[in-house]
Amino acid sequence: MSFFLLYQFYCIHLEDNICQPGCPFQSLLCLQFTFTGDVVSVNQVAVNGSNYLPPGEAEKLSTEEVKAAVWGSKMTVALEEFQLTTTWLVKACLLLMYSRLT
After folding, report:
1. Do residues 50 and 79 make contact, with C-beta atoms less than 8 angstroms apart?
2. Residues 77, 50: contact at Cβ < 8 Å?
3. Using 50, 70 and 90 to split pLDDT, how confident is the model at 97?
4. The pTM is what?
5. Using one digit for the tens of pLDDT, what is the confidence trace for 51-85?
């Protein structure tokens, strides 16, 4: 739903010839994908956990729990990358909006 609204807002500005190259709305469209990846990664880490365990508990895990912990650890790495990308896209969007104000 939010992607659709952003796309409509983007098309309105495109028709009015307001949206030019370097427009912050283009980075907002990319931001939708990175934020979605962020949410999916958070949910996967919440469901599967990760290998950040106290020293005595790692040896007690079954093979299925080990596989879930490995998958959760991979999702933790993806989560960190999505969070960084989302943060930097928001910063870039704000800088582009500020540059258009001045």
Report:
1. no
2. no
3. confident
4. 0.69
5. 787 888 878 888 898 898 889 999 999 999 999 99
Cβ contact 31:89 at 8 Å: yes
Closest by CA to 82, choosing from 26, 25, 48, 44, is: 44
CA distance 54 to 31: 35
Longest dimension (CA), the chain: 63
Question: What is the residue type of 44?
Answer: Q
Helical packing angle, 2-15 and 24-48, nearest 10°: 170
Give CA angle at 39 (34, 41), nearest 5°. 90
